[in-house]
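Dear Dr. H.,

I hope your travels went smoothly. While you were away I took the liberty of generating a structure for the chain from your last submission, since the lab meeting agenda had it listed for discussion. I wanted you to have the full record in hand beforehand rather than looking at slides cold. The sequence, exactly as received, is reproduced here:
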Amino acid sequence: MLEHFGAYAFIEHDVCPLTSFTAEIVGAAVSLGRDGYKERSERLCAIFCSSTEPNAIAAWGSRDWIVISNALMFRLHKSAEALAPQVMHTVGVKDTRLGTVMQKAKSAPGFSTAMASCLYIGAVGFFAGHEVGHHLEGHDGYYLPGSVRLRDASDQDLKLEQQALEIGPDERGAIISRQILTSFLLKFYNGETLSQEDQAEYQAVIATVLSVGLFSALAVIRPRSIGMKEASEKRHPPGALRAWMLSMYLSGKIKECCSLISSPVQQQIQMVSLDIAAAESVGKGAKEAAILNRAKTSEPLGLRAAGIRRALFDPDLPHHLRTLLEIRSRLRPTLRPR
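The corresponding predicted structure, in token form, is as follows:
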């Protein structure tokens, strides 16, 4: 705990409106996670802590714990509030039927708009779902004392192993984020019969909100260096790799569930969503932020500023992914899937 959160103290779920709202999201993630347990599903639980570190971890003991700091909540809340106006106005959601309903809807306590609360759900759902993934895959078989690891493994080998163990949880986080947020978005649908054109518009808005909500996790995703430089020296995969894999997962689900959206529109939704989320992840004081002020607004400035655009074309990216997938396959027999 000290390694991940520094000085901390456990807190109740209802200490403020934000923690209460977060508890609902995390509770939904825990419920979805328990559905994947073959036995003793009640051991999967969540708890919050007060800390200055924006983080979430999976921890093992008599129960399978998900621990989330209030600093993470505050950071994701800040991102959601910053991104909501862009989704509404820059992307143009406000001019759609669903956007109109959302503008009139009552926002969750502590949020300025319903859109901001939706984006927050997507981001928190990802982090909670990611930790659920660690438990479902049984990573305590790797991390707890006495677990099986490479003999005489170098520090770099161990870090690559730890990176490999993040791939499955990232996908699980994306799955749970989509499930929770889709259920929440359906509350804005009044059940009326829609024309095919209106259905396509609904699907496009839902795909956009899902994408931006999930990608807003980039604001605190680890490691903060998004590119491939010194990738093998980190405990988490490069941010660009994680963004690319999340994008691939979403692309498949949008094609599967939003069949009325054309392929070009699907691609545009993903590019714009990732771009504005990446732009928000760049601190105002960072030198990269100067890129966001350039006049060439036709190009994905957020992706350039965050370094994602450059990293996605790095020839080391696919090689690094293949290495992690091979390590993941080798480690699987040592794990304790639930």
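Two observations you may find useful: The chain has one domain: 74-334. Residues 287-296 have pLDDT under 50 and may be disordered.

With kind regards,
E. W.
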